[in-house]
Amino acid sequence: MKPTHTFQSEGITAGYDNRTILHDVSISIPSNKISIIIGANGCGKSTLLKTMARLIKPASGQVTLDGKPINKIPPKQLARVLGLLPQSPIVPEGITVADLVGRGRYPHQTFLKGWTKKDYEAVAEAMDMMNITEFADRNIDELSGGQRQRVWIAMALAQQTDILFLDEPTTYLDITYQVEILDLLTDLNRKYGTTIVMVLHDINLSARYADHIFALHHGKLVAEGEPAKVITSKLIEDVFGLHCTVVKDPVSDSPSVVPIGRYHNKLRMYS
Amino acid sequence: MNNTAVSENKQLLIPKNFIKVLILSIVLLGICVLASLAFGSRAVGWNELMDGLFHPDVQSHGANVVRQRIARTVFSLMCGAALGVSGALMQAVTRNPIADPSILGVNTGAALFVVCGISFFNIGTAGQYIWLALAGAIITAIFVFGIGSMGSGGATPLKLVLAGAATSAALSSLVMAIMIPRSNVMDQFRFWQVGSVGAGNWNSISVFIPFLIVGILIALFSAPALNAIALGDEAATGLGVRTGTLRLVAAFGGVLLCGAATALAGPIGFIGLLATHMIRLVIGPDLRYIIPMSALSGAIILTISDVCGRILGSPGELEVGVVTAFIGAPILILITMKAKMRTL
Amino acid sequence: MNESMHLIIAGRTKRRRRFFLVTSLLAIISFALCCTMLMLGNTIYPFSDVISVLLGEKVKGASFAVGTIRFPRMVAGIFAGFAFGVAGTVFQTMLRNPLANPNVIGITAGSSAAAVFCIIVLHASNAFVSIASIIGGLATVIVIFLLSRGASFSIGRLILIGIGIQAMLNAVISYLLLIGQQHDIPTAMRWLSGSLNGAKMENLYPLIITVLIFGPIIIMLGKRLDMLELGEQAATSLGVNTDKTRLALIISSVLIIALATAATGPIAFVAFLAGPIAKRLVGAGFSTIIPAGLVGIILVLASDLIGQFAFAARYPVGVITGILGAPYLIYLLIRMNRKGDL
User: Which string of DSSP letters, residue by residue, matches C8-23?
Assistant: First the structure.
């Protein structure tokens, strides 16, 4: 089981250029759990994720890992605890799947030594977990979108961090693959206790897979907690501006958002 | 129905600054012409200017200088107009804010043909290598457009610029290969290599006129359809525009104009970029107005640059190609810095 | 689990073997070209004579031809070729664009413009011209990077600004060539197209020392460069300090390329060709820095031999590499656009 960490943002304000996107956000990531950040487009979900994963320097406030500001931790050391899978990483031309997954081992390697047994083990384990071992010597270009995403996640797994951030890991994937990826990430969490933090677009999948939800609106945290408590029609209305009703997901009993439009509304007849 | 009526109405609307800009441009153009006639290695006074223009019987030195400068001025106005319209056309065709002959490698293509002409066919006078340079320019432009618009997303600025730069690099090494064993060729070529309107005479003007007219007519006639292309190919097709044919015709017009100008004056960069950008800033995106205004502003910019070159470089002159590169390149950089990278 | 590990190890061992095999082959070819260069010339000397000269013995005729003319020429070719190859591949990998190289983004134009200015306007001495060209190249890089800094680093912006700056520098060069006196023109031309002619050992030491210092630094940064290839965000989360790494790589590459340009002039396309060729030969997954350096050496030496002996007229090496490189450049562009990599 992965060790427990306290990982917090303390009043961070951040953005790009002169545009401030996050305003004074303080959150604490529940250790060894799956947390999902939700919110409308442009609300600062990705910015929060990237700031916490040290890709964006906050204008004020700080992010701390076990009480230590992350910018004070040497980058390689931090990379052994905290990993992030960006939304659109770049595939180097002609690289094989195994070599790409192997790049996740960088923070564990030193300059002179080549791959050690540990490196090979980590790569094999990550690839097995993502079911991509059969592609090991294939070129990434030959894989489908869903397979590719599994390769990237395997790379992040090979990094063997305690905390894993994913920026919209299911975007551009068909619904089948979305569920597959989320299942695999849940496996990872259940098996090793890896803390997972991700941004997802789909509220219902978020509600189903998250242990903890952070809801952002206009760069501010408006609600957090267990999905069952957080996801209410009022919150969805506030955050997304969507008129909706929340029902129980028949599969998981988690809250499920059903939008209400101007048509096809049988509820109106009774109200 | 109401909506359509409103939008049609809007289409007919003249951009709000258009009249003002037009008047201003005409005034500026007049000033430019006078400045171009008056300034140079020898400045002339008002009386001499008037004598040179309107009293062919007066034989003072100043009046003769002015008469010599008439051809140069007319030529520079024409080159400027051609380059301005060409820039507007190319930018519209490629939906690309930085398309300009100098960036697209057209100049190097013309250069290669000129060098071949000098080296292998003993061609020496400007009148002779016009056609060679024109052919070089057209072939290169087609080539660069072809490469730059391959693949998804069409001709993005970055793709186009890289295609142009790469083609330029490739062609200039061929130019070198031909030139290095022949020092006499180098000697002739370096005079063409710097864009200049100084060599403009009535002969080159008469060669230029048909190209200019055909090019501008193509531009004016394709403008409404090009407006539709600005919305994207799919939208344009939906509006009933045959995008393929239109692109081809409009691009041909653009290359014709810049090719002819480059052939006669040598490589003069950035006029199209500058003229069209300035105009678009002031009167908005409607090409039916941008095209004629680009012609005007291109003429103004080139003539002013030429006058500046003559003043700065006196007693000799700083060739206009150098001046426009120094005005244009910073503007290109500014555009790049301001642009959102997603659009590049 | 064990099975998959063996599978992965087997695959990687295979690729590793290919990498070492190809790299050794490249080294052997480079060496053979060096020998050829020393032996070939107006008079052909046997290998034994060449060895004797290199060992410091006096051999009639050969001592001068080999020791004073051919040897410096070869050394210039080796170090410049290595520098162009290494720096080129660093830029291409770092900017994730095979077209991004010192020639295309205007760095060599800075060197050339400064050199041409010194020759035509100042009538300066060789040493001065070299120093000016180094400064010119470095200044151009600094300007381009300052202008393209923005909020976040962007490759497209860097390339476009580089091309803008290059347009200005080319205008300057054209103008300088125009006002220059006729007898200065051939000297100036050397700065527009690289050449190994007239290489002298005493002029080569700065290049040699710089390559010996910064070459290894670049090689050591190779692994981080591989991470940078995955993109800014992925590299950061793998624990690479992207800003520092990029800065170190840029400074090192620009220094070696500036000194190489000062020594031989900009040898066209070597910086651009070496990386992709090396990558094609060794396969992906390994750092291409050393193979690219070797390919650079091979390109320069082979092209110089072709330029000297294949035609009636003697062409400088830059013209040959230019003609060889141009079609490949076009091919690469077409392929990249087809794949939608741009």
Answer: HHHHHHHHHHHHHHHH
